[in-house]
Write a structure and sequence with these properties.
It is a single chain. This protein has 430 residues and is α/β, with parallel strands linked by helices. Helices cover 33% and strands 25% of the residues. The strands form four sheets. An eight-stranded mixed beta sheet has the order 6-7-5-15-16-17-14-18, with helices on both faces. A hairpin with a 6-residue loop joins strand 15 and strand 16. The longest helix has 27 residues. The structure holds flavin-adenine dinucleotide (FAD). The site of flavin-adenine dinucleotide has 40 residues, from helix 2, helix 3, strand 4, strand 14 and strand 18.
Length: 430
């Protein structure tokens, strides 16, 4: 049996399933010589391939994707994206740090928007702002701390008490929330499909083409099930899956998390979702549940975290249904039409691993759950770096770099201990 070198999912991504059928590009066959090989067609890989295509219009660039575009995590996420992040605290240094990173995220966002506009990518993009909400006293403290930080930064916002929140989103589940204007909601599967269609002519995308092994003998030799690709330079944009090839095992951790879309709601039920036609709500605890409206008649819920191994499907379904029904008890007759999981790569200190890993091998990994915009800018900068523009320091001086993580079994013991403690603290935020 072939070794599995990429995240494999038994379930279909709900956002992708709701889009019209799409035929994947053919898989790679035979001997292929390229100047650059990019592995993984998520936000990081598509951006890197596109940027290389722009910088070197005569170069042959090959992009391989193990699954189909839209079925990787880049299509499986919740679709929250923001050109700017809020400061983590109320001090001047918190604001300065946020500003430094925001210069990068603004670059990533501008890059994405340029393509969305130029190629008319219909990805249900909406300037929604976002709500950070609390269902517990501890969560409320977090919301108040964020309130102080946005006040200190002079950012527009609205503090919402329980009644104000219920009026806007149709549930009295939360004690309070903070609405800030930064932030967009989009259909991630539609966006990633659109980006794949917009690649420059010198980039060839192959789907259903997992990289199985790689070795360097003067240049890189890449084995896939039915092709051998040679290239002097490889960009690994597989997030934590780079560990299958022996790299960054002591820096990256794979976390599974899960999402679901409800059945479509009838008019009367949809009217119970509050006065805001578009909203996205983030929990005040990191293990909490994300909720958003999707289109006029559905909700999406995202919850659950598991370390390295997927959660059994029936448990996922029951948990997500409970998250939805606890928040909307009047909609207990509504079920979940699509339930799916995805992976994200975490690092101990939240910084990505970015840059040159070995001769002719570059990677950006460790999205820490926010890769739509981050993947876009880090993929773009990685392409520039691999093509001789800019240095590793340009990025790592601002973002830092992923810290060492203990090997197994200490890693799992540590994760399970922290997760159990955090779940207790999260309480009703889950
Ligand atoms: C349920 C969920 C909700 C999330 N919500 C959000 C959100 O709201 N906003 C946000 O910004 N982020 C969110 N994220 C995180 C986001 O999806 C990731 O940060 C993003 O997908 C990272 O992009 P990437 O291109 O670096 O990696 P990926 O999207 O993981 O892309 C890597 C690609 O490489 C391919 N690959 C892997 N191994 C191989 C191989 N051996 N050969 C060939 N191809 C390979 C994979 O199939 C995949 O398509 C969420 C994630 C999940 C799972």
């Amino acid at each position: 049996m072939t070794r599995l070198t990429y995240p494999h999912y038994d379930d279909r991504c709900g956002f992708n399933a709701l889009l019209p059928p799409r035929s994947p590009r053919p898989c790679a066959q035979g001997d292929i010589a390229a100047d650059y090989a990019v592995i993984g067609a998520g936000y990081t890989g598509l951006t890197a391939a596109r940027r290389l295509g722009q910088l070197q219009p005569d170069a042959r660039i090959v992009l391989i994707e193990a699954t189909e575009v839209g079925e990787g995590s880049s299509g499986r996420n919740s679709g929250f994206a923001s050109p700017r992040d809020l400061p983590a605290g109320a001090t001047a240094s918190d604001r300065e740090r946020a500003e430094t990173l925001n210069r990068f995220t603004e670059e990533g966002w501008a890059w994405l928007m340029e393509q969305v506009e130029a190629h008319k990518i219909d990805c249900a993009l909406q300037a929604s702002g976002r709500i950070k909400a609390a269902a517990t006293a501890l969560g409320a403290e977090q919301v108040h701390a964020l309130h102080r930080a946005v006040q200190a930064a002079g950012l527009p916002h609205q503090f919402l008490d329980q009644a104000a929140l219920e009026e806007r989103i149709g549930t009295s589940y939360y004690q309070c929330g903070l609405y800030t204007h930064e932030g967009f909601l989009l259909d991630p599967a539609a966006l990633i499909r659109g980006l794949a269609e917009a690649l420059p002519p010198n980039v060839t995308l192959y789907e259903k083409t997992p990289l199985l092994s790689m070795q360097r003998k003067g240049q890189w030799y890449l084995e896939t099930p039915s092709a051998q690709i040679t290239a002097p330079t490889v960009i690994m944009a597989t997030n934590a899956a780079i560990r299958h090839f022996g790299y960054l095992r002591d820096r990256l951790v794979t976390i599974y998390t899960y999402a679901a879309l409800t059945d479509p709601l009838g008019l009367a039920d949809a009217a119970q979702l509050g006065s805001m036609p578009v909203w996205g709500l983030l929990p005040s605890h990191r293990l909490g549940t994300t909720v958003r409206r999707f289109g006029p008649d559905r909700l999406m819920v995202r919850s659950l975290y598991a370390h390295e191994r997927p959660v059994p499907f029936e448990d996922v379904k029951a948990t997500l249904l409970s998250c939805f029904h606890r928040r909307y008890p009047a909609l207990r007759h509504i079920g979940l039409e699509h339930v799916w999981g995805g992976t994200t790569a975490l690092t101990l200190n939240g910084a990505p691993w970015w840059g040159r890993v070995a001769e002719g091998l570059y990677t950006s990994a460790g999205c820490n759950g926010a890769g739509i915009v981050k993947g876009s800018v880090l993929g773009k900068r990685l392409a520039e770096h691999s093509a001789g523009h800019g240095s590793q320091q340009d990025v790592t001086a601002s973002w830092g770099t992923a810290k060492w993580v203990a090997p197994e079994p200490f890693r799992s013991i540590g994760f399970n201990f922290i997760a159990a403690r955090e779940r207790r603290l999260a309480g009703l935020e889950t």
